[in-house]
Amino acid sequence: MSLRARINNFLIKDRHSSPASFIKGETHNHNLLPVPNSMEQSEGEFILPYNSHYTIHGPYRRERLEQAVQRFTDVLDKSSRTESAYDFQQTNASQSSNLSIQVEQYTDFYPSVDDDESYNLIIDEQGIQITATTDWGALRALTSLNQLIVQKGDHCVLPCVTIKDQPVLKWRGLLLDISRHFMPHKLVLQLLDTMAMVKLNVLHLHLTDDQGFRVESKRYPRLQSVDTRQEYYTQQQVRTLVDYAADRGIRVVPEVNLPGHCAIIQLAYPELSLKNFQPKTPNDFLGDFSPPLDITKADTYTFIENLTAEITALFPDRYYHLGGDEVPEQPWLTDPSTRIYMKELGFKTGCDLQAEFTRQYAEIVQSYGKTPIVWEEAINDRLPEGVIIQPWEKGHYRVDTTKHPIINNWRYYLDFKRPAWSYYRQSPFALEVNKRQVSPKDLLGAELSVWTESTLPETLMRTVWPQGMAIAELFWSGPSLTSRTAIADLYRRMDHNHHLMENCGLLSRQALHKDLSKLAGNNSAPLEKLADVIEPAGYHFLRQRYKIPSLLLPRLFPRSFHESDGRLFLEQLPPESRTGYLFKRNIERYLNGEKELFISLQQDLQQWRDNHNLLSDTLPNTLTGQSDDIVQLSAKLSQLAEAGLQLLLACHQQECLPETVLKPFKRLLDQCEYDTFELGQHQEVYSLLLGFLKPDTLNRHNIAIQPGIRQLFNACKQQISVMNKRQVFSRHKRRHDSDMTLSP
């Protein structure tokens, strides 16, 4: 077996190649996302009158549901193309209405983890009926109602359906890192609107890290003044954000990450630092783990207690995240005061120290009536009962889930920039706890994450959507449904709801075009054509993959290599190429018999092939520093497209291409092999060895038409196999006929 084959075999265990089929599986005749638990459709439809009436029955928070109906109407108006505006007026219970909402229980102002979000939705030709146990269920029903609307002529209509729905997971979160790159307040409010549109119900705010402490502290003002950019939320902005989220049925959970990832705290208050490990700037440890706090000092715990009192007063949710990830032990083990402290307590390792710190931090948080959450590194026997564990890295753990419920974060990192289908097939119950798969009763919920080392405010929304929709459906509908749903159907519904967000002004349809135009000026068309089918690897993959070469070969792979790699142009690109997906799906349809697609496929391939010459002539000076990457990718795209043209024509004419043609095509396809840029544990060396077998830019980018070309290649090989079998059969038949003729 060749070196390439051996390395590939090792890596393939954790690699998610493009699925064999996008169109196989169940399809749905609606645009609902997430898909409901139960839905029955009947004949007929309800035509929405422009002037409609609604009633609300039962104990409910008047202002919340009235605002929710108004938001439903606003989405209806913005997404429809009718000349007249829709208007829903509230009437009393004794009058007739087009929309009836029945709520059974009065709810608190702020949502909680145990709230009932179930709802029933019935639409017939006379109108709409919503019944829900709580306001929150009614909000989810109105979201489904917006997604069901179809425009016919100058009217909006709703199909006659009966829906019974409730979430599989009661904690369906999105973690947003606002420290590495600060996210403006208005942008986070827009993010909350989009989260509500796909029924996510927790915003986990990573408030603090080395680069910034992003919430105003009146007790410790230097946490803000030390930041030269002064990027943080005022306490009033935090209250506004929390209330805005609550109106949409979303909880806001703060994270103050300690004892590591806190260089900004040590810059502001250096007396909390270890003696020989004081940071000088917030970016001293970019790409590395910053030294932890000095946890031997009483002042450290006084600081934490005062800060916790201030933060818990701003966030009413009963959960509070302590962080606790990626704490390097070496600074502790080499600090004289810490070593004395360890000896006094009988500690031998940094893990012992972190366990003791986490116990004390958790008890402080619990004293304010909060339930602590910690990252997986903080799992230890000293954790107070009830502390929540949040796994993110390994996938297998030893933990007593009766004492420590789990919020799964493993493999749901959107900044990994993986295709939506790869997230969609990752069950939140796939964790291994005590050598068994985690059960639903052990799982409090799950979160998708957006870490912002390389995500900017202008790229946040296209990092989250539409990829996050696939995970939102997984969390609400559950893996038993998503595992049998056709990927093509998921993408169709993602498209619909992405357009819905765009029509509401929450996403910009032209944002990427504008960003690339800024770089390329008047010559942006060839660059945009290339960008349309390129998928960049995420920051975490680059950091992990180049960790070893930056240590062994620092001149070839400087520490900042993975951070400077494709910036400007490459950071603008979304995680997944919609064009690449459509091309593969159309190739699949063509090979399944839709031969009328031949002309359009041929035209696409010709344009990609010819784009390289156009790009080479117009590559703007602003991209000179990255031109090698761009030119290499453009050249490979052109070569793949040329191969695709020959393979498509051979399939269409049912001709066999000779091995002298197919072998170079196979080498090209192998060199451009599609990858989801995810390394299993301890695979960095093997990935590096494999990477030396192809241009490095192809280790960091996908050319998204490759899976479609691979399908054509396989079809041509199969065509040769079939024809060879026919020839063998024909020879045997002629021999048999000849023998029969010669026999007496």
Automatic annotation (TrEMBL):
Gene Ontology cellular-component terms listed: membrane
Residue runs in coiled coils: none
A GO molecular function held by the record: beta-N-acetylhexosaminidase activity
Keyword tags: Glycoprotein, Glycosidase, Hydrolase
Active site: 326 (proton donor)
InterPro entries cross-referenced by the UniProt entry: Beta_hexosaminidase_sua/sub, GH, Glyco_hydro_20_cat, Hex-like_dom2, HEX_eukaryotic_N
Keyword Glycoprotein: yes
EC number assigned by the record: 3.2.1.52
Catalytic activity of the protein: Hydrolysis of terminal non-reducing N-acetyl-D-hexosamine residues in N-acetyl-beta-D-hexosaminides
Residue stretches making up the Glycoside hydrolase family 20 catalytic domain: 170-478
Protein name, UniProt field: beta-N-acetylhexosaminidase
